[in-house]
Protein backbone atom coordinates (compact mmCIF):
# COMPACT_ATOMS: atom_id res chain seq x y z
CA UNK A 1 0.00 0.00 0.00
CA UNK A 2 1.44 3.36 -1.02
CA UNK A 3 2.27 5.96 1.57
CA UNK A 4 3.31 9.62 1.44
CA UNK A 5 4.84 10.86 -1.81
CA UNK A 6 8.33 12.36 -1.92
CA UNK A 7 9.88 14.40 -4.71
CA UNK A 8 13.58 13.91 -5.48
CA UNK A 9 15.67 17.06 -5.16
CA UNK A 10 17.81 18.30 -8.05
CA UNK A 11 20.80 17.97 -5.72
CA UNK A 12 21.41 16.59 -2.25
CA UNK A 13 21.94 18.80 0.79
CA UNK A 14 23.87 18.54 4.04
CA UNK A 15 21.35 17.28 6.60
CA UNK A 16 22.60 19.37 9.53
CA UNK A 17 22.03 22.60 7.61
CA UNK A 18 18.96 21.58 5.62
CA UNK A 19 16.87 20.45 8.60
CA UNK A 20 16.18 24.05 9.63
CA UNK A 21 14.16 24.52 6.41
CA UNK A 22 11.47 22.20 7.71
CA UNK A 23 8.24 24.21 7.76
CA UNK A 24 9.25 26.82 5.18
CA UNK A 25 7.32 27.61 2.00
CA UNK A 26 9.27 27.04 -1.23
CA UNK A 27 8.46 27.77 -4.87
CA UNK A 28 10.37 24.98 -6.61
CA UNK A 29 9.94 21.67 -4.76
CA UNK A 30 13.02 20.23 -6.48
CA UNK A 31 15.20 23.21 -5.55
CA UNK A 32 13.95 24.31 -2.12
CA UNK A 33 16.85 26.71 -1.45
CA UNK A 34 16.19 28.86 -4.53
CA UNK A 35 13.24 30.84 -3.15
CA UNK A 36 11.66 30.24 0.24
CA UNK A 37 10.00 32.04 3.15
CA UNK A 38 10.19 32.96 5.93
CA UNK A 39 13.81 34.04 5.95
CA UNK A 40 15.97 32.14 8.42
CA UNK A 41 18.17 34.48 10.43
CA UNK A 42 20.14 31.74 12.17
CA UNK A 43 20.91 28.04 11.93
CA UNK A 44 18.02 27.29 14.27
CA UNK A 45 14.72 25.84 12.98
CA UNK A 46 11.54 27.89 12.85
CA UNK A 47 10.32 28.49 16.44
CA UNK A 48 6.80 27.16 15.85
CA UNK A 49 8.16 23.76 14.75
CA UNK A 50 8.79 22.87 18.39
CA UNK A 51 5.02 22.97 19.00
CA UNK A 52 4.39 20.14 16.55
CA UNK A 53 5.72 16.68 17.22
CA UNK A 54 8.30 15.55 14.69
CA UNK A 55 8.08 11.97 13.52
CA UNK A 56 11.45 10.29 12.89
CA UNK A 57 11.48 6.87 11.21
CA UNK A 58 14.38 4.63 10.27
CA UNK A 59 13.55 3.19 6.86
CA UNK A 60 13.60 -0.57 6.48
CA UNK A 61 14.96 -0.25 2.94
CA UNK A 62 18.45 0.59 1.78
CA UNK A 63 17.71 1.18 -1.91
CA UNK A 64 15.37 3.84 -3.29
CA UNK A 65 14.72 3.84 -7.02
CA UNK A 66 12.48 5.76 -9.41
CA UNK A 67 12.16 4.88 -13.07
CA UNK A 68 10.08 5.51 -16.20
CA UNK A 69 9.90 4.18 -19.74
CA UNK A 70 7.48 5.76 -22.17
CA UNK A 71 7.03 7.22 -25.62
CA UNK A 72 5.35 10.59 -25.75
CA UNK A 73 4.80 13.61 -27.95
CA UNK A 74 5.14 16.00 -25.02
CA UNK A 75 8.21 18.24 -24.82
CA UNK A 76 10.56 17.11 -22.04
CA UNK A 77 13.91 18.03 -20.60
CA UNK A 78 15.76 15.74 -23.00
CA UNK A 79 13.91 17.12 -26.00
CA UNK A 80 14.78 20.65 -24.96
CA UNK A 81 18.44 19.90 -24.25
CA UNK A 82 19.19 17.93 -27.37
CA UNK A 83 16.96 19.86 -29.82
CA UNK A 84 15.41 16.55 -30.80
CA UNK A 85 12.06 15.69 -32.33
CA UNK A 86 9.08 15.18 -30.06
CA UNK A 87 8.56 11.47 -30.71
CA UNK A 88 11.50 10.19 -28.70
CA UNK A 89 11.20 7.19 -26.40
CA UNK A 90 12.60 8.17 -23.01
CA UNK A 91 13.77 6.21 -19.98
CA UNK A 92 15.04 7.82 -16.78
CA UNK A 93 16.31 6.10 -13.66
CA UNK A 94 17.35 7.47 -10.26
CA UNK A 95 18.80 5.10 -7.71
CA UNK A 96 20.11 5.77 -4.20
CA UNK A 97 21.76 3.19 -1.96
CA UNK A 98 22.58 3.62 1.71
CA UNK A 99 22.73 1.50 4.85
CA UNK A 100 21.02 4.28 6.83
CA UNK A 101 17.96 6.04 5.40
CA UNK A 102 15.55 7.94 7.62
CA UNK A 103 12.44 10.08 7.30
CA UNK A 104 11.65 13.19 9.35
CA UNK A 105 8.18 14.73 9.09
CA UNK A 106 5.90 17.23 10.81
CA UNK A 107 2.74 15.95 12.46
CA UNK A 108 -0.56 17.90 12.32
CA UNK A 109 0.43 19.46 9.03
CA UNK A 110 -2.63 21.73 8.48
CA UNK A 111 -2.28 23.14 12.01
CA UNK A 112 1.44 23.67 11.47
CA UNK A 113 0.70 25.68 8.33
CA UNK A 114 -1.82 27.86 10.17
CA UNK A 115 0.79 28.52 12.86
CA UNK A 116 3.30 29.50 10.19
CA UNK A 117 0.77 31.81 8.53
CA UNK A 118 -0.10 33.46 11.84
CA UNK A 119 3.54 34.25 12.58
CA UNK A 120 4.87 34.96 9.07
CA UNK A 121 1.80 35.67 6.95
CA UNK A 122 3.16 38.81 5.29
CA UNK A 123 6.37 37.09 4.18
CA UNK A 124 4.44 34.14 2.76
CA UNK A 125 2.05 36.40 0.87
CA UNK A 126 4.92 38.44 -0.56
CA UNK A 127 6.73 35.28 -1.71
CA UNK A 128 3.64 33.91 -3.45
CA UNK A 129 2.78 37.25 -5.05
CA UNK A 130 6.29 37.50 -6.48
CA UNK A 131 6.85 33.91 -7.59
CA UNK A 132 3.52 32.09 -7.15
CA UNK A 133 0.64 31.91 -6.76
CA UNK A 134 1.46 28.27 -5.89
CA UNK A 135 3.96 27.33 -3.18
CA UNK A 136 4.85 24.24 -1.20
CA UNK A 137 5.37 23.86 2.54
CA UNK A 138 8.19 21.44 3.35
CA UNK A 139 6.64 19.05 5.88
CA UNK A 140 9.07 16.14 5.62
CA UNK A 141 12.30 14.94 4.10
CA UNK A 142 14.41 11.83 3.62
CA UNK A 143 18.11 11.64 4.37
CA UNK A 144 20.74 8.98 3.72
CA UNK A 145 24.11 8.42 5.34
CA UNK A 146 27.07 8.09 2.92
CA UNK A 147 24.78 7.42 -0.07
CA UNK A 148 25.73 6.13 -3.50
CA UNK A 149 23.60 7.85 -6.14
CA UNK A 150 23.25 6.91 -9.80
CA UNK A 151 21.17 8.90 -12.27
CA UNK A 152 20.73 7.67 -15.83
CA UNK A 153 18.99 9.38 -18.76
CA UNK A 154 18.20 7.58 -22.01
CA UNK A 155 16.46 8.62 -25.21
CA UNK A 156 16.15 7.06 -28.64
CA UNK A 157 14.81 7.82 -32.10
CA UNK A 158 15.17 6.15 -35.49
CA UNK A 159 15.53 9.34 -37.49
CA UNK A 160 18.65 11.43 -37.24
CA UNK A 161 18.75 14.75 -35.43
CA UNK A 162 21.55 17.11 -34.51
CA UNK A 163 22.29 18.08 -30.92
CA UNK A 164 25.01 19.43 -28.70
CA UNK A 165 26.22 17.56 -25.61
CA UNK A 166 27.87 20.58 -24.03
CA UNK A 167 26.66 20.99 -20.46
CA UNK A 168 24.29 18.04 -20.74
CA UNK A 169 24.93 16.65 -17.28
CA UNK A 170 24.58 19.88 -15.33
CA UNK A 171 21.69 21.08 -17.47
CA UNK A 172 19.77 17.84 -17.18
CA UNK A 173 20.10 17.45 -13.45
CA UNK A 174 21.40 20.63 -11.90
CA UNK A 175 23.82 18.42 -9.96
CA UNK A 176 27.57 19.08 -10.26
CA UNK A 177 28.46 15.42 -9.64
CA UNK A 178 32.15 14.63 -9.18
CA UNK A 179 31.72 10.99 -10.16
CA UNK A 180 31.86 9.00 -13.39
CA UNK A 181 30.12 10.62 -16.37
CA UNK A 182 29.35 8.80 -19.59
CA UNK A 183 27.56 9.80 -22.83
CA UNK A 184 26.86 7.36 -25.65
CA UNK A 185 25.44 8.14 -29.10
CA UNK A 186 24.73 5.32 -31.56
CA UNK A 187 23.93 5.36 -35.26
CA UNK A 188 20.33 4.66 -34.35
CA UNK A 189 20.27 8.05 -32.64
CA UNK A 190 20.10 6.80 -29.09
CA UNK A 191 21.45 8.95 -26.28
CA UNK A 192 22.52 7.79 -22.85
CA UNK A 193 24.02 9.80 -20.01
CA UNK A 194 24.89 8.39 -16.60
CA UNK A 195 26.06 9.93 -13.35
CA UNK A 196 27.58 7.99 -10.46
CA UNK A 197 28.57 9.64 -7.18
CA UNK A 198 29.47 8.51 -3.66
CA UNK A 199 28.75 11.19 -1.08
CA UNK A 200 30.04 11.49 2.48
CA UNK A 201 27.97 12.26 5.56
CA UNK A 202 24.22 12.54 5.96
CA UNK A 203 22.59 13.93 2.82
CA UNK A 204 18.98 15.02 2.31
CA UNK A 205 17.74 13.88 -1.10
CA UNK A 206 13.91 14.11 -1.20
CA UNK A 207 11.11 16.16 0.31
CA UNK A 208 7.43 15.86 1.17
CA UNK A 209 5.15 18.88 0.76
CA UNK A 210 1.72 20.30 1.30
CA UNK A 211 0.42 22.59 -1.42
CA UNK A 212 -0.20 26.26 -0.63
CA UNK A 213 -2.03 28.67 -2.94
CA UNK A 214 -2.63 32.41 -2.86
CA UNK A 215 -6.42 32.73 -3.08
CA UNK A 216 -8.96 35.58 -2.82
CA UNK A 217 -10.60 35.93 0.58
CA UNK A 218 -13.02 38.47 2.02
CA UNK A 219 -11.32 40.30 4.88
CA UNK A 220 -12.71 42.65 7.49
CA UNK A 221 -11.14 46.13 7.35
CA UNK A 222 -10.57 48.02 10.59
CA UNK A 223 -10.98 51.82 10.80
CA UNK A 224 -12.23 52.20 7.25
CA UNK A 225 -15.49 53.24 5.59
CA UNK A 226 -15.39 50.00 3.69
CA UNK A 227 -16.12 47.24 6.19
CA UNK A 228 -14.79 44.47 3.97
CA UNK A 229 -12.32 44.03 1.16
CA UNK A 230 -11.19 41.13 -0.98
CA UNK A 231 -7.55 40.30 -0.39
CA UNK A 232 -5.34 37.38 -1.34
CA UNK A 233 -4.01 35.14 1.39
CA UNK A 234 -2.08 31.84 1.47
CA UNK A 235 -4.48 28.91 1.93
CA UNK A 236 -3.89 25.23 2.65
CA UNK A 237 -4.62 22.99 -0.38
CA UNK A 238 -3.78 19.52 0.95
CA UNK A 239 -0.87 17.15 0.37
CA UNK A 240 1.11 18.00 -2.75
CA UNK A 241 1.36 15.56 -5.65
CA UNK A 242 3.38 15.94 -8.82
CA UNK A 243 1.65 13.84 -11.50
CA UNK A 244 3.11 15.42 -14.62
CA UNK A 245 6.53 16.91 -13.99
CA UNK A 246 8.72 15.59 -11.18
CA UNK A 247 10.62 12.47 -10.15
CA UNK A 248 8.58 11.06 -7.28
CA UNK A 249 8.32 7.92 -5.19
CA UNK A 250 6.04 6.76 -2.40
CA UNK A 251 6.70 5.00 0.86
CA UNK A 252 5.21 1.53 0.78
CA UNK A 253 4.47 -1.16 3.30
CA UNK A 254 5.57 -3.84 0.82
CA UNK A 255 8.65 -2.80 -1.10
CA UNK A 256 10.67 -5.99 -1.35
CA UNK A 257 12.66 -6.49 -4.56
CA UNK A 258 14.15 -9.83 -5.53
CA UNK A 259 16.90 -8.13 -7.51
CA UNK A 260 18.03 -6.04 -4.56
CA UNK A 261 19.67 -8.98 -2.81
CA UNK A 262 19.12 -10.73 0.48
CA UNK A 263 18.01 -8.37 3.21
CA UNK A 264 17.58 -5.48 0.78
CA UNK A 265 14.39 -3.71 -0.19
CA UNK A 266 13.60 -1.16 -2.84
CA UNK A 267 11.24 1.79 -3.26
CA UNK A 268 10.14 2.01 -6.89
CA UNK A 269 7.79 4.44 -8.59
CA UNK A 270 7.28 5.94 -12.02
CA UNK A 271 8.99 9.18 -12.90
CA UNK A 272 6.13 11.26 -14.25
CA UNK A 273 6.59 14.08 -16.75
From TrEMBL:
Region Disordered, annotated ranges: 249-273
Bias kind Basic and acidic residues: ranges: 264-273
Acidic residues bias: start-end ranges: 252-262
Protein name: Uncharacterized protein
Amino acid sequence: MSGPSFVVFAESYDAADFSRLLGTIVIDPCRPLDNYAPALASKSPLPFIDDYRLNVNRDTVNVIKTKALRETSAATTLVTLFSLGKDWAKSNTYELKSDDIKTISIQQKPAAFEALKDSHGEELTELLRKYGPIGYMLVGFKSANNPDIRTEYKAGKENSAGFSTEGIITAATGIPFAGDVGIEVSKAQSVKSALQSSLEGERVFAGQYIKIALRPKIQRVQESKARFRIGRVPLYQGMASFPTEKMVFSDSSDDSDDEAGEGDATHEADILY
